Amino acid sequence: MGQSTARTEKESSVEELKNRREWWFVAEKTRSKRLDYLRKGVWKKGAIGGNYAPGIKIDLTFPQLFIDKWQEHEGEAIMLQKAHALAHVLDNIPIFITDNSQIMGYIGSAPHNIVWHWQGISMVNEEIYNEEGIIPEPEEESLEILANLNDYWGGRTAVDKLARVLDPEDAVKFMSGAIGWGTPTSAATYSTKDFDYIFKGFEAILAEVEERMEETEEKLQGNPSPEILPLYDKLPRWEAMQIVLEAGIRYAERYARLARTLAEHFESDPERREELLRIAETCERVPAKPPRNLQESLQFDHFVQVLSRYETFEGAWPHRPDYIHGPYYDKDVNQDKRLSKEEALDLVGEHLIRTHEVGIFAPKWAREGLQGITGTWVWTMGGVKPDGSDACNDMTVAYMQAARLVRVSNPTFGFRWHPKVKDEVMRECFECIRHGLGYPSMRNDPVLVANTVHWYGHPVEEARTWVHQACMSPCPTTKYGCQPMRMASATANCAKMIEYALHDGYDPVVNMQMGPKTGDPREFKDFEDLFGAWVKQMEWLRNILVRTVNLGRVKDPEFFGRPFLSAIYERAVETGTDACDPSNGDRGNAWVTGFTWVENADSLAAIKKFVYDEKKYTMDEVLDALNANWVGYEEMRLDFVKNAPKWGNDDDYVDDLMVRCLREVSRHSKENRCPSNNTWPLLPENVSGNIHYANLVGALPNGRRLGDALYDGGISPGPGLDKKGPTAVLKSCGKFDHVTDGRAFLLNQRLSPTQLSGEKGYQLWKAYMKTWADLGLDHVQFNMVDDATLRAAQKDPEKYQEVIVRVAGYSAHFVDISRKTQDNIIQRTVQGLG
Amino acid sequence: MATCKDCKGFFAREDDQDRGDCVMRVTDPRQAYYKAVPVEADKDASKCSSFRKR
Ligand code: SF4
Questions:
Q1: Where are chain B's structural domains?
Q2: Cβ atoms A614, A622 nearer than 8 A
Q3: Which of chain A's residues have a Cβ under 8 Å away from the Cβ of B23?
Q4: In a domain, A805, yes or no
Q5: What ipTM score was computed for the predicted complex, to two decimals?
Q6: Is residue A192 a contact partner of residue A473, using CB atoms and an 8 Å limit?
Q7: Number of structural domains, chain A?
Q8: What atom of ligand 1 comes closest to residue B4's alpha carbon?
Q9: B36-54 pLDDT, tens per residue?
Q10: Residue range of the domain that includes A7
Q11: What is the crossing angle of helices A78-92 and A294-311, to 10°?
């Protein structure tokens, strides 16, 4: 009786919380004790408004172990040298098993530690030395370790080596920080993974490597010829793969040993003892052999992700876990009934938590661009199978349900919508959005499959395997489709295109001639002259980024080296090459991320209307106002803000310009070639680059001042500038072709949680999604948290720790982003549907 | 001289009794866990502040 009263009280309080839409408290009250413990146990690794949380420390055990062996193997081929060093780390780094946990593996020697990859960029190493709060005690000793490390690696990092071969002018402009961001090395990157291949098990891959080595050794004993000469270099690469695969198996065995020790000597609770023995059995099985059940498949997957991140900073997490793990869930839960749905949900929830807890140090500029998270870990859900049939399964639903229980901001989901998605799955997507998670983002699968075929020629069956390579860009997970290295530097600060067109290529913020001299705009005869200058600046900006990154890509095997990634890449195992070597069959899947893109269309439209069509202002006046950062020109500025046409209002005047700009870029995207001789399409999106670049982009003709946040989306209208409602936004965005006019286009929308409550709310949203799909848009994502909650969270952050918002291509806990970003989200127009 | 193998925290490996894991309970401000670090059985334990005699 007492128990049932308590249950009733709990249920009614959950109902009340739901009515108040306090989803974070609903989650806390409805998740299992295990998930509650694990969720609350996570150390927050994403930087809070750019700074690490108190208690977070940089891991010094990892580099010390690494360097010991690295120096011992000095002079060997880089992949082999690194393999020895990594194996030593995996054999010796402290490991731990958190109470109640069932999935093992962490990058670092303690849960509050974050790692970094000192072989990448010297500047980052120096930044760590000077970063307050993250140096472990005793500080003096730690600083000495860091100083020694910096002394050794100064001049030897991948970027140091690249800088020596780059054109000096390109290097200076690239490093100015004004035109783009990122690092042209796989030391800071991300890679697609083919789990069909990886799940064969490391022992099977080792056997394959062994076979290749034997064949090669035989050839080397044979007839001397030019053909056999390159084979000499392959042997150490295969040896490196062997070393890391074997070390990966031993790393898992260490967890198995610890779990057995705990079961036999420490644990008194029989249930937990059983769990520990199951953990031991799991870690003895994977990654050595193929998984047989859900726990083993999740564990295998997580070990692979952890091992990859011991090798390098993988800033994104291209993944399709419902597709990979779905068959194991089906076997355990539906067929063998080995697991109950609740037990499976615990594993899935923990999978999200284990991913969320991963922390890797990022330099300040990157932390500002990715506030609140470690990287853009967008997991792909739904979609179709290679034959085009619906791929959604019970794991798709389980991940959505688990996400609402654990409310992590990272990973988030991108859902591959297609016409055959069942209503029950759409409802799960909507529930996540309604609970304010900001995810899943909705992706138009037929459009993106066609886009993937159009730009790179991936066969359609392969294109259908796509995952989000980072926030947005699809990449097939196949032998020749996998992308080993997202060339992160091809990220353009696109607002500079219009800024440079208006300043003859000169950058008034960093005070440097950056782009080509395209003429004084005062001398331009008409709008076409201005547009011509814009095209030249656009081409120059893309060229310098793509040039630098192409060079970084081909040099990566020489300057950085990826033994582990190579060991799990079928084409690298087959050819004895580094996974990043573009000559091993990589089909190419490069793109230029376009930050701060929409400002171009709005700025061009403002000048076209006011200077050339209506002659309301002269170019002289506009340039004077811009050079004064609009100070003293407030009335004129407001005219430009309020009365110039703005993208997102179904106004052909500006929309046609947007389409024209995109078509120019698309033409140029085919002229730029990647090392695999494939294209470089543009992908407009912002992460939180719109805040990062606020102080690097000068005043613009859309009325923006230096320091003001830029627009938040890739094709989202400026905050508060979309006055005609949600359908007008969709119509504007539907005026260009999402297959041929670029790689993908990020659209942020804010919806009202009050309007979208209940069944009526779901039906309204579904109708909106139909319009979105009919117009052929490739992406949309939603914020559905009301202003009152967000303002309350600003006032009382402690109480609103689990409120999540969609920032750009990712979600973050609202309290972890800077005040400027918070305000930028509140300013976005809340669209009423229907 | 006390060595790791004399310590309660030492668990020898089945395949090699000269090596093992030093297993410790840690409670940090957010979570509790067991940690394992590989050690040699004959490692000098005289300076180890966590040594607990078997
Ligand atoms: S290192 Fe210290 S605590 Fe660990 S086994 Fe040796 S003596 Fe015991």
A1: 4-40
A2: no
A3: 258, 261-262, 265-266
A4: no
A5: 0.98
A6: no
A7: 3
A8: 6
A9: 999 999 999 999 999 999 9
A10: 2-30
A11: 120
